[in-house]
Structures are given as structure tokens and as C-alpha cells.
Amino acid sequence: MPSHLSADRSAAQPPQRGTVDALISQTRRLRGEVDAVRRDAPVDGEDPQGRWQRALCNLAMHQLNDLDEHLAQLRDGPPPVRVQPTAVPAARAVPAASRRGSLLSRVGSAEWNLQTDEASWSGELYQILGRDPAAPPLTLDELPSVVLDEDRPRLTTMVTDCLIDAKPIDGEFRIVRPDGGVRTVHMMGEPVLDADGSTASMWAVLRDVSELRRSQRTVSETRDSLQRERHIAQTEHRLAIELQEAVLPPWRGSLRFPQRGTQTLDLTARYLPSSTSALIGGDWYDALELPDGDTLLSVGDLTGHGVSVTSGMAMLLGALRGMAITGTQPGHMLSWLNQLLDASVQPALGSAVCCRYRPETHTLSWAQAGHPAPLLFRNGTGRVLAAPDGVLLGATSGAVYGQAEESLEEGDLLLLHTDGLVPRRWGSPRSSQAESGGEAESAAGTAAVQKLLDLAPRFDEARSTQDCVRMVVEEFGETEREDDACVLIARVGS
């Protein structure tokens, strides 16, 4: 960095104008492209990733703006400087480029002559430090007076190393302007030696990097915020999984629930996560042998994702089990669950099917709350059970849920599922037909139900319900489900 004021060195000459102009054009074109990306970045102040993206774009714009102006200064050559003894009117101290409002005022130069104790500043340096252009430039001894107290040792060390050990200066410090404003200045300089190798003066370029550092801090803060949000999301996801695994029975194959007498139920269930989201939903399945010998079968879905939804699902499942043990019938259980959701601090909607199977009479009593009806398979054919009335849980206060009964035979297979497996519309407001439990399924949902019913011949040949669930997973498990799903299959044995 040779001094343009040194008597034994020629002044730096600007490079070829056409070459620098081409670089300026490329810089401005790139700046326009970055600005387009910035405009397309999300503006939602609540989105940490969007804030981080915009902060990065703003930082890139600051750097490109500086690069554009630095290239312009390179093309035009060094700005004139003021020598201490010469009084220069304020109107002449500011170059035309600075009066145009360009960023050239962010870069100034200075030289301090150690032999004459004279200081020479460019007009831009006066602007950076906020000093009156008519005032004499500060000497090296006076310069620390405008530096923040905590940054003065850094400046002193840089200047001392430069003057004594001839080390180049390259560092930053903060200055306090007369109006109280604080600016961050990046200083680069080197000693100018005389003929006998002694330090005759020190020349430096000072750059106002306040906006650049502010943008960098913003990027750092938004990045940290994004990392915290991701850490929180990962923690919540792990907690949701652990809670779900603690609540849902870890069925990995067929389970047999011994009933009074000789009859058994062969049971298998599977949870199918969403293929488009890493979030854990509120789907559940459950089977519980009750004290009177009956078996509770249920599946359901609480709307939403995350820990709060998973904990809400656990609350509903616990309440459902408690009511079933007391002998409460399915229709009344759903009425109580609806009241529980309606009184919750965080309102939510849910759907459910509750079944109570009595082996002594081979009777299935069941009720539904805005949920797909169970499918019954017998002798190689399948059908959808006619659903009793029932609205979504939490949709209205004081809802009453109907109850239906179905006689089962040995070998019958009952399939319960949540609507993440078989899509359907939850219209709002729901029609009375939809409230009665499933006739208002969408065309896609109807086709999907038909695909399940078409599995009847294969179910009839299957050795266990585990094989049946595997068939369902093969049919639906690899599709692009937008939501989680559960499937439970029970077969009446002898």
C-alpha cells in the first residue's frame, strides 16, 4: 500500500478505465440479481429462516454497494487530501462525488508526518469522523481522543507496531462522532520510510464499515435464532415421538387377547407417519381388554402436530380407557370426550371411532365422531358399516352421539383406520349427511375405501392380522400422505 504522498514514490495511477468500468457493470448487474432474490425472500417477521435469508441478502447488498463505490474510486484515482497548515473552505472540502450522496464518504485517507508533525486528511475522512472540514486534522497523539475507551489499546498497539516494527496496520476500532454517534472504522496502513530506512510518516486508509458490521450482526443473530428454532423443533419432535411411543402399544405383530370362554381376538395395528412432514400428529389406535371381558377397540385423530397435540391425544386416550373400564358405552364415551375437548384450554378438533366387542354375544357396539366408519370383511367380501350420527369432537357443545350394533361371526375381520390413510373432506360447515358418518366422502376417499374393500379376498387367505396389515401398508404406505395415519385390524377367532 504505497503512499500517494510519499516524495520518493510516484503517485498511484488508476488502471485502464475500460477494465474498471466493465467490473463496475458486472458488480451492478450482480447487485440487481441479489436485490431480486432479496425481494423474493419471505417477509414474515415470525419466520426465523426468512429473517436469516433477508439478512444475508442485505449483507450481500451492502458489500456489493461498497464494491461498486470502491471500483468507482479506483477508476477515478485517489481523492485530494488536506494538509494541516492550509485552511480549506468547508464547501471545497467535500468532493463532488460525496455531494452526490455516494458511498465514497465511507472511505478516507490520511498521512501523518513524523518529522514535521503534520497531518494530511482527505475530505472523506472528515465526513467519517464527523468533524468540521475547517478544523485541523488530528495528529496521531490526538487520534485516540475520538476512539471509544475500550478500543483505544487496540489502536495504540496497531500504531506502535507500525511505527516501531514497520508492521502493516489492519484492524478495526469504534469512534465517537461529535453528535454522539458511534461508527466502526476499519484502518489499513503502512509506514513510509525515508532514505536511511527510518520511519518518516504513516499512511492509512480508513473505511466506515458500520453498516456492514451491522448487517453481519443481523445475519449472526438471525442465524442463531434459526438454530435455536431448529433445536427447539428437534427437541419437540423427539418429545412427541417419545410421548407417542409411551402411549401407543408397541405392537410389532399379532397379539391375542384372551376372552371369557374360548374365543380370542387376533389384533395388529400400525402407525404410518406422514410422508410429507417430519412432525408427529395426533393419530392413535388402542385395544384394551376390560374387566367384564369385553374388548375396547378405538382409533382417532386430533388435529395438528407437535408435542401439544401428542399430549392432547394422550389425554383423550387415557380418558377413553378410564371410561371404558367403568362400563361406559361407546356413544356416551364420545359425548364425554367432546365435553373434555370443549373445556380444554387449547381448543382442538378430533375424530374417533370407539368399539366395544362382547365375545359372549359376538356383538360389536360402536360410535363415531366425524370419523370414517369401520370396514367389515366376511367370507372374502367387505363392506362399510352403516354409521350412527356423530360430529367432530370439539365442534359443538353438548353433542349427542348415536350408537350402532353389529353381530360378528367367527373369522370376521374388522378394519379401523384414521382418515390420513383414506383421504376425505372435512367440510365446514358439515352437512347432516357428513355428520352421520361417511356418506360425504370425496371421490378420492371413496376410491381409497374401495381399494381397501378390494383386499377382501387376500384378507380371507391371510394367516394372521399381521399379514393383513402388511397388505394395507403395501397398498397405502408408500403413497404421498399429507398426514399421519393409523390402521387397526381385529379378527374374531375361535
UniProtKB/TrEMBL annotation:
Transmembrane intervals: none
Signal sequence interval, chain numbering: none
CDD domains in alphabetical order: PAS (cd00130)
GO MF annotation list: phosphatase activity
Pfam families: PAS_3 (PF08447), SpoIIE (PF07228)
Location of the region described as Disordered in the Swiss-Prot/TrEMBL record: 1-20
PROSITE patterns per the UniProt record, alphabetical: PAC (PS50113)
Keywords, alphabetical: Hydrolase
SMART domains, per database record: PAC, PP2C_SIG
Domain PAC intervals: 169-221
Domain of life: Bacteria
PANTHER family from the UniProt entry: STAGE II SPORULATION PROTEIN E, STAGE II SPORULATION PROTEIN E-RELATED
Name under which the protein is recorded: PAC domain-containing protein
Species annotation: Streptomyces albiflavescens
